[in-house]
Amino acid sequence: MYAIIATGGKQYKVAEGDIINVEKLDAAEGAEVTFDVVVVNTDSDVICGEAAKKSSVKATVLGEGKGKKVVVYKYKRKTGYHKKQGHRQPFTRVQISAINA
């Protein structure tokens, strides 16, 4: 059984026990969160649409962190203008504990 959840403007395919990194959530470590469900695939059939909104996916927050550094370099020729910036996107690591179809 697996589900497709939506969070942070992205969709993730998850199964029970999976550990994933999602966009930063406002939840403390050890807290339980619930995600919006797009599709649930059980062993017998696929649930989507309004029926999938009745389903739920629960996860436990394991912690927070930052992703790899992305270098942003701006440059304009002939003017001597250049600017270098770095960015590390924050994320929340969660473990999927239950999929309720």
Distance between the termini: 9 Å
Count of discrete domains: 1
The number of E-state strands comes to 9
Question: How many alpha or pi helices?
Answer: 1
Give your account of this protein's structure.
The chain is mainly beta. The chain has one domain. The chain is built from 1 helix and 9 strands. Strands 1, 2, 3, 4, 5, 6 and 9 form a 7-stranded antiparallel beta sheet that branches. Strands 7-8 form a two-stranded antiparallel ribbon. The longest helix is centred in the middle third of the chain and has 4 residues. The mean pLDDT is 94.
Write the layout of secondary structure elements.
Elements: E1 2-7, E2 10-14, E3 19-23, E4 32-41, E5 46-48, H1 50-53, E6 56-66, E7 70-76, E8 81-87, E9 90-100
Features of the shown structure:
101 residues; two-stranded antiparallel sheet; 64% strand; 7-stranded antiparallel β-sheet; 4% helix; mainly beta; elongated
Describe the structure concisely:
The chain is mainly β and 101 residues long.
